[in-house]
Design a protein that fits this description.
It is a single chain. By secondary structure, the chain is of the alpha/beta class. The protein has 2 domains: about 30-115, Rossmann fold; about 140-260, NAD(P)-binding Rossmann-like Domain (Rossmann fold), CATH 3.40.50. It is about 40% helix and about 15% strand. The strands form 3 sheets. It has a 5-stranded parallel sheet with strand order 5-4-6-7-10. A 3-stranded parallel sheet has the order 2-1-3, with helices on both faces. The protein has a two-stranded antiparallel sheet with strand order 8-9. The longest helix is centred in the last third of the chain and has 20 residues, at about 260-280. The structure holds ligand L34.
Length: about 280
């Protein structure tokens, strides 16, 4: 079974569109998301466009602020400060990665926790790891939604996450743990990685290397979630971290790239923006 994140996100966005359409009457306005893109990396520009398009569909007001990669850290922090103070803004997202001369940690920390639609602020991260209510990071939240939609039982299963980033690997491991999976976090220094991944009932791959996971690394019946969005070095086409053609026949459930986790990330961003808006009402 191939889970289409594209179809699932379309259904969820349709529900949100209906919900948001009631907001002007109830609250006098719709949620407002501000996305800041620094520089002109084509991949980031494409994701940011996707966020604007989804906002438009759902009925969320979207302001995308484009800044040159020569912007100083100070200027960026000033911009965020203004948006923090702006009552008409519900969500602030600074698209990552940022140019090397800007501290991502400083920028993330400068965003008001209540407007942190990414769930990247240290206070949101702390809340997640203490099982307190918080804004969940979009990609991990989307992954759990896909597993539940596909009817995958997580409780008691062995989950292996490849990758330990703050954005995906660590938080998805925590969410799987909260669903009562037994979780292993593997990474570039893991010894005998294929041995580890073959033990997985659920395998989440977020390592950022084209077709890194081969058929030999998965057992029959494994649920495979591919978080990678890479350009194939030869064809230039989009591809995941999993060799889909080779792994799909062995997997019980698998997500494609494109059309898998990516659209779910954007869908969960819409959900988080609505949540931040509603918390203020
Ligand atoms: N602050 N930075 C911040 N928040 C995020 O949540 C992100 N991320 C990651 C990179 N930096 C970020 C995203 O938005 C990755 N990411 C993301 C979002 C959407 C898609 C991929 C990555 C997506 O929609 N992918 C499509 C293909 C898009 C294309 O053609 O380029 C897909 O079907 O997978």
């Amino acid at each position: 079974m191939v889970i289409s994140g594209k179809d699932l996100s379309a259904r969820l966005k349709e529900d949100m569109r209906q919900e948001v359409s009631t907001f002007p009457e109830k609250y006098g306005r719709v949620p407002h998301l501000v996305v800041i893109l620094v520089g002109d990396d084509p991949a980031s520009a494409s994701y940011v466009k996707g966020k604007a398009k989804a906002s438009e569909f759902v009925g969320i007001r979207n302001t995308t602020v484009l800044k040159p990669d020569t912007i100083s850290e100070e200027e960026l922090l000033e911009l965020i400060q203004k948006l923090n103070e702006d009552e008409s803004v519900d969500g602030i997202l600074v698209q990552l990665p940022l140019p090397g001369h800007i501290s991502e940690a400083k920028v993330i920390e400068s965003i008001d926790k209540s407007k942190d639609v990414d769930g990247f602020h240290p206070l949101n991260v702390a809340a997640l790891w203490q099982k307190q209510s918080c804004t969940l990071p979009c990609t991990p939240k989307g992954i759990i939604k896909m597993l539940k939609f596909a009817g995958v039982e997580i409780k008691g299963k062995r989950a292996v996450v490849i990758g330990r980033s703050n954005i995906v690997g660590l938080p998805v491991a925590k969410l799987l743990l909260d669903e009562n999976a037994t979780v292993t976090i593997a990474h570039s220094r893991t010894r005998n990685l294929p041995e580890v991944t073959r033990e997985a009932d659920i395998l989440v791959v977020a390592i950022g290397r084209p077709r890194f996971v081969t058929a030999e690394m998965v057992s029959d019946g494994t649920v495979v979630i591919d978080v990678g969005v890479n350009r194939d070095p030869e064809t230039g086409k989009l591809c995941g971290d999993v060799d889909f053609a080779a792994v799909e026949p062995k997997a019980s459930v698998i997500t494609p790239v494109p059309g898998g986790v990516g659209p779910m990330t954007i869908c969960c961003l819409m959900e988080n923006t609505i949540e931040c808006f509603l918390r203020k009402q």
